[in-house]
Amino acid sequence: MSEQTIKIQLPDGSVREVPRGTTAHDVAMSISPRLAAAVVVARIRPLMPVAAGTTATEETSEAEMYGGTESGERLVDLAAPLNEDVALELLKETDEAALKVVRHSAAHVMATAILELFPETKLGHGPATDAGFFYDVYRETPFSDEDLAAIETRMGEVVARDEKFIREEESREMGLKDYAEHGEFMKVHFIEKFTQPGDEISLYRNGKFVDFCRGPHVPSTGRVKAFKVTSVAGAYWLGDEKNQQLQRIYGTAFFNAKDLDAHFKRLEEIKARDHRVLGKQLDLFSIQEVAGSGLIFWHPKGGLIRKTMEDWMRDECIRRGYEMVYTPHIMRRELWKISGHEGFYSQNMYPPMELDDAEYRLKPMNCPGHILIYKNSPKSYRDLPVRYAELGNVYRYERSGTMHGLLRVRGFTQDDAHIFCTPAQIEDEIAGCVEFAESVLKTFGFAEFKVELSTWDPKDRKSYVGTDEHWELAAGSLKNVLERKGIPFKTIPGEAAFYGPKIDIKLVDVLGRLWQLSTVQFDFNLPARFELEYKGEDGELHQPVMVHRALFGSVERFFGVLIEHYAGAFPLWLAPVQIGIVPISEKHVEYATSVKAKLEAAGLRVELDVRNEKMNAKIREFTLQKVPFVLVMGDKEAAAEAVSVRTRGKGDEGSISLIDFIERAKELVSSKTVAL
Fold first, then answer.
1. SS3 call for 73
2. What is the mean pLDDT of residues 414-425?
3. How many CA atoms does the CB half-sphere of 139 hold within 13 Å?
4. pLDDT higher at 497 or 86
5. Average model confidence (pLDDT) across the chain
6. Taking CA 476 as the corner, what is the angle to CA 475 and CA 477, rounded to the nearest 5 degrees?
7. Please, are residues 532 and 374 in contact by the beta-carbon 8 Å criterion?
8. 225 catalytic residue (yes or no)
9. Which end of the chain lies in a sparser environment, N or C, as judged by fewer CB atoms within 10 Å?
10. pLDDT at 236
11. Is residue 414 among the annotated active site residues?
């Protein structure tokens, strides 16, 4: 092959020899002009063996979109010249990665509109996000709703101009000089942070607008067909409250109006399921500002659901061979120094408390407490595995602006467990944890989940403890279990905890949203730090292997997800009030009271409404509270020992015998089915 040509491998495996400098658009045109008109961006990967230990991910993150993966896979403009042998994919509008590209291009369109309308504005950065895009800008005058509307209108004009996105390069020094002269302090910062002296920097131009950017972009502004400017919020420069107050303007973009409309309909559905709103409406929990942000007060109905969740978890733990333990909420600071949390996790812990005998800290984790219980008595290989479980309250410092209802709090209850075992037992124990996690998700009504394996970054050794051998053993054990069980997973390098790799199990809710809850973590750090031992079959002392696992993740967060997943309409077994009773008139109260007693004797949670209100008003109140069953009773029901059943989501089902209804309800509770 000539030095003036390169090889292009297409997804079907065919290879083309083309002149060096050929673009992805050229390749698309050679296949079909219709294809060339349809593609948005290209994905390339060098045609060379991937270095050992690297991982090609299945999805393209924002960082990967700009900087590429370890395999060399990256997105490029259709107009970018190709100068090496590559595998080439031409991405159309239906590709998830293409959607992020158009959103990044939409951020540039928005920045163009902002500067045309408000030229005094200084630009920060404008990345794509999972929901759309934003641009951080500095302007002394706050943007009003009218300003946002004007920006959106001007964006339409920029799109109509169909300006090409053109990549340009200039020296780093020239870029710094130009941006500094115009007071663009944020651009200067980004150039200094992401480039080195002597580098060329990349700029993207559309019309008169030029932005420091690594790309890629869609071919022209005209490809940004459906967009919306949604809101503006405050954001401190570099996240530091001492720096300038920026304005973060949010928007979203799609390739067509249909997808844009569907997006906003989905947002309305998400809003209707907001656990903070439903928590107040259904009287489940509250956050009392006088007590402090991020601290949850469980009301009686929410407390009933929590008790049901925790009772199920404790029973399952005991059935699976765990022993329930309890550990203190505060412990000496020295303990956290031994564990390593003082050095690796201190920023997430509350400050030390000076007491008469020592400094103490609120616990952010339960693991050191479980380790002390293990260490309290000698262990033999015959005792292993030892499985300790605790629904323990922990406390972690979260910045005031990061709290979010039940999902991000400062005090929460972690369904924590720690398993101490021999190296030979480790894979079976991890498999048991994964099976337990699957059982949790299935029991609480989640049919789908995704799995990630988080490993360390050997180039960032200061952020981790342990040897290469430890990390290879740990990551290999987790990987072997997932492969043995046939569970698809995505490897995420650099996302491991400082003490070991982990499996993250993310459930998928009814709206298709991912929630990080269940985690299984390998730990070879704490057994060494605390000098844990067991006597082996050879009579010698050995160090056990340790597994952390949390399946709810936290009771609070899991409860928040449950509220949103079910929109507050919990399955019968979880509902705080399972059955509402409505007597038609005062003369039917006596029969209604006897029905209530029989239902409660069967273990059901019942509420009888004897207020001096009309029957329909009482039914409506139970309906608003999303009670699964409402039983109405009058003369006919009293005479026949029956109840008239109104089922949530189905309406009036007519009269059935009380005995038959009780059996139906008990079966629904015992089977933990979602349907009524």
1. coil
2. 94
3. 22
4. 86
5. 92
6. 90
7. yes
8. no
9. N
10. 86
11. yes
CA separation for the pair 490, 497 (Å, rounded): 17
Q: What pLDDT is stored for residue 2 in this prediction?
A: 62
**49 cis-preceded (ω within 30 degrees of 0):** no
CA quadruple 45, 48, 52, 56: dihedral, nearest 10: 20
Q: Which is the catalytic residue, given 414, 425, 521, 625?
A: 414
Catalytic pick among 502, 565, 588, 618: 502
Residue 502 a catalytic site member: yes
Instruction: Calculate mean pLDDT across residues 51-61.
Output: 36
Task: Give yes or no for a contact between 253 and 227, defined as CB atoms under 8 angstroms apart.
Answer: yes
Q: In this model, does residue 623 exceed pLDDT 90?
A: yes
Task: Identify the H or E element spanning 215.
Answer: none
Q: In whole angstroms, what is the distance from residue 56 CA to residue 64 CA?
A: 11
Q: Collapsing DSSP states into helix, strand and coil, what is residue 192?
A: helix
- Look up residue 401 and give its amino acid: G
Residue 131 to residue 103: CA distance in whole angstroms: 9
> Residue 186, CB half-sphere, CA atoms under 13 Å: how many?
23
The whole-angstrom separation of Cα 573 and Cα 668 is: 7
Other CB atoms within 10 A of residue 378 CB: 10
Q: How far apart are CA 103 and CA 129, in angstroms?
A: 8
Q: Which of 515, 490, 503, 499 is nearest to 431 (CA)?
A: 503
* 542 is a catalytic site residue: no
Residue from 387, 513, 506, 526 nearest 453 by CA: 506
Mean pLDDT of 596-613: 96
Biggest alpha carbon–alpha carbon distance for the chain = 99
Q: Which amino acid is at 582?
A: V
Strands 579-583 and 629-633: parallel
* Residue of 367, 410, 509, 646 marked active site: 367
| Token pair belonging to 127 | 């990345």
Task: Point out the catalytic residue in the list 416, 504, 509, 523.
Answer: 416
End-to-end CA distance of the chain: 69
Cα angle at 447 between 442 and 452, to 5 degrees? 95
Residue 196 bears catalytic tag: no
pLDDT tens column, 341-351? 888 888 899 99
The predicted model scores a pTM of 0.81
Query: What tokens appear for 278 in the block?
Result: 């439903």
d(CA 232, CA 148): 8
Distance separating alpha carbons of residues 35 and 605, to the nearest angstrom: 62
Active-site option among 341, 418, 557, 565:
418
Selected catalytic residue, list 103, 396, 410, 588: 396
